[in-house]
Task: structure prediction
Amino acid sequence: MDNVLEKQRSAHEIIERLEQAIVDQYMEDAKTHRERLFNEHAVNKFLTRISEKSAYLSELYQDKDGLRQSEMEALSGSSEFNEFYERLKVIKEHHRKYPNEPVELAEMEFIQTAKRREEEDFEELEKLFSGEESLGRYLDLNAVHILYVNLKGVKKLDYLQFLSEFDDFATIYPKSTKTSEEYRHYLNELFDYLHQFFRRAKPLYDLADLEESAQKEFEQQWSEGQVKGWEEGDRQGDNLFCPACQKQFTKQTVYDAHLTAKKHIKAQNKLDQEQQTANGSSNGTVSSRDNKRKAIAWKERLIAKYAEALNDYREETRSNVERKQALTDRERALEQEQEQVELIDQESDEEDEERIYNPLKLPLGWDGKPIPYWLYKLHGLGVEYPCEICGNYVYMGRKAFDKHFQEWRHAHGMRCLGIPNTRQFHEITKIEDAYALYEKQKKENMNEAARADTIEEYEDAEGNVYNKKIYEDLKRQGIL
Result:
């Protein structure tokens, strides 16, 4: 049937079937992380189809071409029986031409979808994530971290620190860096990754609502000049900021020197022309350069909101990175083999990937779980041992403290002090004590030659022990 009313009825039926399919999907007992994520992606597909069918229904109800209204009038007019028999005739003629045409009920599609959950479907899901992401459990910001490290003027952070501070745009990113093309590329890559991670790991999360609330808050703060890192003074009144070049300088001499450069003169002329074409308004229009600054600030705000919503994933990622750094090569290889075995023989009744309950913040063991509390107390891991020579680094537990005297950090600190890292300086953690012991050793070394005769020991045939001076005197006298 090609009439509008039948199309509307069919669309309503499909929407109801999709809603029931979503209910059936949630009724399934998904015990593993992989099954839960598969269910969320399936529900997301159903919701997308509902949205598309609803938009199609809305167009039909608007009846822009008047077909629906004409059909309603034909069915409700004086010749409604004639219309009925005409449509019945069309149906009979169709079945006479195609007597053996198979008919597939609409509900069969959703019944098959609910029953079909093969390994190929899970493989398609696994292809969405990298190995580091582990099916959406962790973030993989290694590529973005490389872009951050290559930015000029930023605070150099290792990967662990970067995971904690990458959204602190007011502190670790200087104003001079924010106007560069490399920074824009870095922001775009970071934004794209977080946005795509939401789509892959949290497909049912309402990103539109998050962005809408962030947009309202941002617009209000920007109009008041209260956006953190982009305050009104930073945008307009900085003495070392060039509005023509949109560049922040750190020294007055460099700023003065760039004023005579050809690039600045060309940019200044272009800015003057833009201001002259502002239709005579007192304040002028917002320049395209200011719009670029606003776009960068808006993207920073979005990234910060995304990072806030993904805070649990960030903490899980930091714990996973710390755990992997503590593994030996053999343990890391065994873990990779174990992960492959779990992906092949993963059973639906296993309760893997439950949230680790760790209120005491105990260290993680080789299996990724907190160590027992009695073991934590036995090794004294709650006792702090600071070392001033290592830059006031704090070691947790006596074992780690004793071991660090032979590690690179302590050896580097001793080398900076100009003191050899020998056994005599074991247990010395303060710079003042290390210098005092070193001075004492140097004084003793000056008298070492004079005391050499008393330090060397000799033994006679009867087993008596003498120092070198007494032994030679007795031997010279013929007593020995």
The radius of gyration is 38 Å.
